[in-house]
Amino acid sequence: MDVLVLIGRILFAVLFLGSALGHLTKTKVMAGYAASRGVPAAVPATAGGGVLLLVGGLSVLLGAWADLGALLLVVFLVPTALLMHAFWKESDAQARQMEMIQFQKDMALAGAALMMVALIAHAGSDLRLTITGPLFDIG
Fold it and tell me: pTM to 2 decimals?
């Protein structure tokens, strides 16, 4: 089981680390798009999102309080889905469909991250191939 969880952590984290890179190196461009979607304080929100993605992604990847890292990703994903992919506001059918797909993707990833929190916190020190044990205990 440990190897499968490690592979899953790696595959999961790569998506967020790549996105963190974009958020932190192209902050102004991404913030412009965020502002166009109605995100308040778009530059700090974009940079803050990049930090959440980076810290959460590295935590999950390395297995250093990976339960906390997965929770940080949820903190990023849910507001992102609601603010950036508000498909219910779209009048164009194609745009609505594209935003709905992105909304559902973000919510599904948030659900997977919550499952990761529970799995890691429940497994506790029995889960190997990590740098630290979990921060939370929901044994």
Answer: 0.95
- Read off the DSSP letter of residue 91: -
CA 77 to chain CA centroid, nearest Å:
5
The vertex-123 CA angle with 120 and 128, nearest 5°, equals: 85
Q: Are 46 and 30 in contact (CB under 8 A)?
A: yes
- Whole-angstrom distance, CA of residue 93 vs CA of residue 137: 45
Coil vs helix vs strand at 52: helix
If you count DSSP H runs as helices and E runs as strands, how many of each does the chain have, helices first?
A: 5, 0
Q: CA angle, 112 as apex, 32 and 120 as ends, to 5°?
A: 120
Alpha helices by DSSP H, listed for the chain, are 2-25, 27-36, 42-62, 66-84, 93-123
Per-residue pLDDT of the chain (139 residues; tens, 9 = 90+): 899 999 999 999 999 999 999 999 999 999 999 999 999 999 999 999 999 999 999 999 999 999 999 999 999 999 999 999 999 999 999 999 999 999 999 999 999 999 999 999 999 989 999 999 999 998 6
